[in-house]
Design goal:
Helix content: over 70%
Number of strands: 0
Shape: elongated
Largest sheet: none
Oligomer: single chain
Order of helices and strands: HHH
Number of helices: 3
Mean pLDDT: 90
């Protein structure tokens, strides 16, 4: 069992909850760093959500 299989098992049908958690983590990060980096945090969060969507879709 590879790491992707483990992630798929953990995420299961909870992609909405995982994506909400990613959004909350991004909000916390944006509160802690200068505003000039907000776009980079948003971009990283979007990519993380894309990965979660890809794991659920496989």
């Amino acid at each position: 069992m590879g790491i992707l299989d483990k992630l798929k098992g953990l995420i299961g049908g909870n992609t909405d909850k995982v994506e909400d958690t990613i959004d909350k983590a991004a909000d916390v990060a944006k509160d802690k760093i200068p505003d000039e980096h907000d776009d980079k945090v948003d971009m990283a969060a979007d990519k993380a959500e894309d990965v979660v969507d890809g794991l659920d879709g496989d």
